[in-house]
Write a structure and sequence with these properties.
single chain, mainly alpha, Muramoyl-pentapeptide Carboxypeptidase, domain 1, 2 domains, three-stranded antiparallel sheet, two-stranded antiparallel sheet, 9 helices, 7 strands, binds zinc ion, TAT_signal
């Protein structure tokens, strides 16, 4: 298993780190979203305990994501988060393949819902904002698995990413040379890099769905409804009466036509 973060990274002390730490601890202490949601203001309470990974990105066991994330035909199983992480990690993986070494298959990994190795906070893999490249050649804990020329090529990739991407080979304690992750929370620095890379963090294309529909789009909607509104829906990919009721509720709260149909405007609320 990859990845190890020092408890408090030397360059990331202060409020953001401790805020993230507290949120993660809330989770590991077993405080369920549903348990807090009853405290009043269902939607607000649920939003307040949105899980985040170590880097401040939303994490979830059923995170909506690009499961087709692949470079040179090598699939990163489970993919990465839609939007900026997809654009940025796609750049990193393509550049790695072009300038460091070819990708091996199997050997590249994406999303994984789990704590940091040896720690309690959620791994950045749990928010779909980290990838592992050529794991067999660069095992967790090993250092010096790349030649000097390859390290220079990696440095060039990181430099182009303006500090938004961190390499596990730069961890201060246990090295993790297979591992690359977003090192900034959602915000201006990430947006600026996406713009620089020429990508637009588009939300995924969403089909219009309503009661009776089944499949991944329904699963995504149920996940997002739970995250945004704390509805406690079973994420089973089956659009039934409970899902319809949740959709109607969130539509009413957001001033939309209350029809129980998840179309472009309702998706926009869910994806916001
Ligand atoms: Zn990793």
């Amino acid at each position: 298993m990859c990845e190890h973060h020092t408890p408090v990274h030397p360059t990331r002390t202060g409020p953001p780190t401790s805020r993230i730490g507290r949120r993660s601890l809330l989770r590991t202490a077993g405080v369920a979203v549903a348990g807090l949601a009853g405290a009043g203001g269902l939607g607000r309470a649920a939003a307040a305990v949105q899980e985040t990974s170590q880097n401040g990105w939303p994490a979830a066991s059923d995170l909506p994501r690009n499961r087709d994330f692949a470079v040179d035909g090598v699939l990163f199983p489970s993919g990465v988060a839609h939007g900026a992480p997809d654009v940025i990690l796609g750049y990193v993986a393509r550049q790695f393949a072009a300038t460091v070494e070819p990708l091996v298959d199997p050997g590249c990994w994406g999303f994984s819902y789990r704590p940091v190795t040896g720690g309690t906070s959620l791994s950045n893999h749990a928010s779909g904002t980290a990838i592992d490249i050529n794991a067999p050649q660069h095992p967790y804990g090993a250092s010096g698995t790349f030649t000097a020329a390859q390290v220079s090529a990696i440095r060039a990739i990181l430099s182009h990413c303006d500090g938004v991407v961190r390499w596990g080979g730069d961890y201060s304690s246990t090295k993790d040379e297979m591992h690359f992750e977003l090192n900034r929370p959602p915000g201006a620095e990430v947006d600026a890099l996406v713009q620089k890379l020429g990508g637009t963090p588009q939300p995924p294309a969403r089909p219009t769905i309503s009661e009776g529909d089944t499949g991944q789009a329904v699963r995504d909607a149920q996940t997002l409804l739970n995250q945004k509104g704390g509805y406690g829906l079973v994420v089973d990919g089956v659009f039934g009466p409970a899902t319809t009721a949740a959709v109607r509720d969130i539509q009413a709260r957001n001033g939309l036509t209350v029809d129980g149909v998840v179309g472009p405007r309702t998706w926009a609320v869910l994806d916001a």
